[in-house]
Amino acid sequence: MNTTKTAFVVIAEFEYPLAHRDEFLELCRFDGTRSVADEPGCRQFDVNTTGESPDQVVLYEVYDDAAAFEAHKLMPHYKEFAAGVERLGVQIRSLRFFDRQHP
Question: Which domains does the chain have, with CATH numbers?
Answer without folding.
Answer: 10-102 (3.30.70.100)
